[in-house]
């Protein structure tokens, strides 16, 4: 069931999502962002968990890829949060395949984390965190740690800048990669994507993100994947299995 209504301040993002849905679907069809490999790795992680887990997915979209990774796992409940009510309506049919309690809510990921009073064993954030500012990302790590149970894990799939690479250098490099490799995209579609990333993408370096994660209390940070022209990572970030002060 989809709960709540989108905040008016997110109307522009909603419009962009609707306009870009067909473009995004084409990216998926041609696997230009390595979704098959990325979600295959996520599937391996979730299938390896030996205890039932409650999962929160932030920026879940239509959840089609996530469901493929979660099917057959010991997932106990699924909660999905996204800015787009349209995407969540599509997600309803997909997450029903999991046959577990489901809650889908419209919201912005950082605000949701900071106001959520529930705790989860697993948090998944895929291709969403790079839209936040540096200050917001730091706040995200702190809020995520508060929303995880002892020993909980956050899986982050996102784009990153190389060491000493500026945002402009990253954007130019990504555009060159897109033009040279994404041959099925029309010039209009590439212009749409380029305009979107130049307006909305603010990737960080590994070092910055690692520092913020550690400061928030994450102790084990494993890179499970590094690819797509050196732009994408999967991080598995774990909290200590023993609560602080309990030995």
TrEMBL record:
What's the superkingdom here? Bacteria
A single GO BP: methylation
One Pfam match? Methyltransf_25
For this protein, the Enzyme Commission number is 2.1.-.-
For molecular function, the Gene Ontology terms on record are:
methyltransferase activity
What keywords were assigned to this record?
Answer: Methyltransferase, Transferase
Domain Methyltransferase: residue ranges: 56-152
Please report the name of this protein according to its UniProt entry.
Class I SAM-dependent methyltransferase
Q: Which organism is it from?
A: Synechococcus elongatus PCC 11802
């Amino acid at each position: 069931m989809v709960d709540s209504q989108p905040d008016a301040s997110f109307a522009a993002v909603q419009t962009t999502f609707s306009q870009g849905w067909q473009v995004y679907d084409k990216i998926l069809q041609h696997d230009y962002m390595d979704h098959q490999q990325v979600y295959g790795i996520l599937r391996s992680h979730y299938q390896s968990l030996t205890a039932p887990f409650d999962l929160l997915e932030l920026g879940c979209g239509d959840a089609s890829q996530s469901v493929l990774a979660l099917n057959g796992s010991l997932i106990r409940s699924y909660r999905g949060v996204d800015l787009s009510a349209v995407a969540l309506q599509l997600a309803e049919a997909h997450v029903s395949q999991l046959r577990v309690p489901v809650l889908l809510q419209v919201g912005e990921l950082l605000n949701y984390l900071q106001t959520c009073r529930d705790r989860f064993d697993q948090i998944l954030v895929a291709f969403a965190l790079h839209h936040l500012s540096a200050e917001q990302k730091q706040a995200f790590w702190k809020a995520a740690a508060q929303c995880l149970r002892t020993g909980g894990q956050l899986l982050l799939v996102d784009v990153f800048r190389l060491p000493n690479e500026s945002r402009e250098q990253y954007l130019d490099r990504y555009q060159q990669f897109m033009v040279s490799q994404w041959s099925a995209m029309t010039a209009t579609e590439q212009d749409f994507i380029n305009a979107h990333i130049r307006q909305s993408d603010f990737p960080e370096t590994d070092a910055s993100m690692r520092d913020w994660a550690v400061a928030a209390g994450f102790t084990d940070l494993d890179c499970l994947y590094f690819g797509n022209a050196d732009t994408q990572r999967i991080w598995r970030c774990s909290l200590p299995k023993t609560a602080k002060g309990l030995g």
